[in-house]
Amino acid sequence: MGTVHARSLDPLPMRGPELGVQADDIDAPEIEHEPKQEVLENKDVVVQRVHIDGLGRTKEDLLSYEIAGVFRARNLVDVMKKSHEARQKLLRLGIFRKVEVVIDTSRGEDALPNGLDVTFEVTELRRLTGSYNTMVGNNEGSMVLGLKLPNALGRAEKMTFQFSYGTKETSYGLSFFKPQPGNFERNISLNLYKVTGQFPWSSLRETDRGVSAELSFPVWKTSQTLKWEGVWRELGCLARTASFAVREESGHSLKSSLSHAMVIDTRNSSIIPRRGGLLKIHQELAGYTGGDASFLKEDFEIQLNKTLFWDSVLSASMWGGLLLPIGDKPTSIADRFYLGGPTSIRGFSMYSMGPQSEGMAGDYLGGEAYWAGGLHLYTPLPFRPGRGGFGDLFRTHFFLNAGNLCNLNYGEGPKAHLKKLAECIRWSYGLGIVLRLGNIARLELNYCIPMGVQSGDRICDGVQFGAGIRFL
Fold first, then answer.
1. Which of 343, 303, 332, 316 is closest to 471 using CA atoms?
2. What is the DSSP letter of 202?
3. Distance from CA of residue 362 to its chain's centroid?
4. pTM of the full structure
5. Predicted local confidence at residue 41, as pLDDT
6. Residue 349 confidence (pLDDT) above 70
7. Order of strands, edge to edge, in the sheet holding 96-105?
8. Per DSSP, what are the bridge partners of residue 325?
9. CA 157, CA 454: separation in Å to the nearest integer?
10. In this structure, what are the phi and psi dihedrals at residue 174, rounded to the nearest 5 degrees?
11. For residue range 373-386, what is the model confidence (pLDDT) as tens digits?
């Protein structure tokens, strides 16, 4: 940020010459006095002009919303603060590679004595950019290639093509994103995609070809998202040994659904938070806008984090969900909930608990209702090696997880449902080491002791490794 100062035109006070000669006895030559610099930190100022240098294809009316707050500044500190906020807003648009701010005194015939000019020097992104990176999902990794057209129409629109090849999933898609000028959190996006996934715990292969439209907007402290999605789903067997229950659901189906999501997130980090909380509620209604899948799906996530003594953190979380079929048609294996693994109930194999098919295959079919809870105590590494540096990326944690997954008979009533969810609870406890990979993902290496194991559950007694972005 540039140096801020004001130039005063008042001459400096005259000092008499030395050696006893008086000023009246000599003809003092006219000299140019350097302007006196006057600190404006505590004085009222007026921002007269704001310039944006370096614009190419960006429309100026888009940026006027982002810099409007600078004109409301009334002192130097406020000018610097609001200029920084405007810079952050400009960078958030995703259309500039670099934004620098220069603040100087106003010049010109209409310049006020306390007037300031603020200049934003911007460097736009290229018309076409490419990217190559790796991405970590829930216990899977993938390579991602992308092409992006930032600022496609001059008002922060973004068009993206992305190809992802992973250990369990391959996808490609085309998306268009447009924010509302002056309110970046209010935006729309259109997506066209194809996703092929493999689910070995169910001996299932699924290919989705779909289109979706989303509207995101803030309401008070919440983030709201409305979404319509139309998907052509193709289910098939992953192996010859797939059970009859999986083969029975193989084939094509069409799902058209409306969904709503509400999120309140006050955590300081989504990977290993030290304070704050999270509330996420999601509803999906399928069948009323077409398609042959009809259901109502509700799920939620709650997390609370509290910093304790000695830089330790206590974290509590809970997940839950319910899937209600509409009509006489049963729910699909592709829509049910799955539970278990290093990212949820530790000590159990990935999604390997709950209802199973009959026979030798023992494919996991998912459940229509579930709940899961977790309690964690995160502490620094013993003796704090690498404190203030690389060692701060690691944390030890002690955990206790519990949950259940089942199908429900919806003619029995809510009390019977709760009783069934409270029966045969799976739970586990243990300890391990957590590594934070920036704000992207986290890795866990745990020693787990599974308890409450039911017939058919697959366990991972002892050391278990997990990688992902969402953990219980």
1. 343
2. G
3. 36
4. 0.83
5. 60
6. yes
7. 46-53, 115-124, 96-105
8. 295
9. 52
10. -125, 130
11. 999 999 998 877 77
Name which residue leads in pLDDT, 7 or 285: 285
DSSP letters for 264-307: EE--S-SSS-SSEEEEEEEEEEEEEEEES--EEEEEEEEEEEEE
Using an 8 Å Cβ cutoff, are 302 and 318 in contact?
yes
- Cα gap 319→302, rounded to integer Å: 7
CB within 8 A of 263, min separation 6: which ones?
222, 223, 225, 278, 279, 280
Contact 362, 356 (CB under 8 A): yes
The Cα–Cα gap between 363 and 235 comes to: 15
Q: Which two tokens stand for residue 454?
A: 């039911």
- Give residue 21's pLDDT: 40
- How many whole angstroms separate alpha carbon 336 and alpha carbon 321? 10
Q: What is the pLDDT of residues 81-114, one digit of tens each?
A: 999 999 999 999 999 999 999 998 888 888 888 8
Radius of gyration of the chain (CA): 31
313, 276 Cβ separation under 8 angstroms: no
Tokens found for residue 6: 């004001």
Q: Give the CA distances from residue 212 to residues 177, 193, 235, in Å, rounded to whole numbers and listed in that order.
A: 12, 9, 20
Tell me the H-state helices in 359-459.
414-422
Alpha-carbon span 327 to 294, nearest angstrom = 7
Q: Which residues of 205-214 are buried (b: 16+ CB within 10 A; e: fewer)?
A: bbebebebeb
Compute CA distances 283 → 184, 189, 297, 299, 300, whole Å: 24, 19, 6, 7, 9
Q: Within 13 Å of residue 394, how many CA atoms lie on the same side as its CB? A: 14
The two beta strands, 115-124 and 46-53, are: parallel
